[in-house]
Amino acid sequence: MIAPQQGTSPAIATPQGTSPTIANMNQRRKAMATPTSPAVRQLLAALRTVLVLTVVFGLAYPLAMTGIAQAAFHGNANGSLVHRHGKTVGSDLIGQAFTKPVLVNGKPKKDADGNPVVEPDPAYFQSRPSAAGLGYDPLATSASNLGPENKDLIAAIKARRATAAELDGVAPSSVPPDALQASGSGLDPDISPAYASEQITRIARVRGLGAARVGALVDQHTQGRVLGFLGEPRVNVLELNLALDALAPR
Question: Nearest 5 degrees, angle CA 160-CA 165-CA 166?
């Protein structure tokens, strides 16, 4: 066996057809390469998973659901808005107050905070009370959260009973409960058939219509229980008032 001369590298076996220089470079690259640790591989796999799930569930799925909703349930997907004569007048899902400004010497009256003072418009069916903001405010939907023995709630109910009785010309004891209490959301668009019926005489007198004609209008807009057993019969106030305007324009 012949020992290699000092200062020279031992001979390296190279594959047939490969020059020693190229073989040496390939082996040096392999020796210098740092193997990927398991932690790094798991991190890369997690990042790829996050990217794929973000694209699928953050972009593709919402776009698909939005497209299906717009195509199959266009009105519901856009808030069940109600349009008349090219204008949006409200929503079937959100109630609103039908009021008119209180005038003093021909000018709108304002409260201590500078807000206009309003009163129920006798020419329209009235909605139930609302505790959402200043009334039917979608940005402040809530109930009063007052207990049944709360003095403020008791006083509010007494005031609402007196207002409804005076407006509709009925005995205070006959005012229906939904004319006295706000809904849980403060945005309920419906009233009971009993409260709608209480207002028929007033509407007929102010509009110059027969009570039977107004009563028939209420019957046409009375909806039964959902699926025949859920909830109670109800009347959508906005739809009823729009039909009233169509029957007897102001």
Answer: 100
DSSP 113-146: TSPBPEEE-TTSPPPPP--STTTT-GGG------
Both tokens assigned to 119: 């009163």
pTM for the structure as a whole:
0.73
Separation of alpha carbons 133 and 94, rounded Å: 14
Condensed to tens digits (0 to 9), the pLDDT of residues 32-66 reads: 555 668 888 899 999 999 999 999 999 999 999 99
Instruction: Report yes or no: 171 and 210 within 8 Å, Cβ to Cβ.
Output: no
Between the alpha carbon of residue 178 and those of residues 98, 130, 148, 184, 194, the distances in Å are 16, 11, 15, 12, 9
Intra-chain end-to-end CA distance of the chain, in Å? 120
Q: What residue type is assigned to position 34 of the chain?
A: T
CA distance 168 to 11: 113
Q: How far apart are CA 218 and CA 223, in angstroms?
A: 10
Q: Which residues of 34-65 are buried (b: 16+ CB within 10 A; e: fewer)?
A: eeeeeeeeeeeeeeeeeeeeeeeeeeeeeeee
Structure tokens at 126: 């009235």
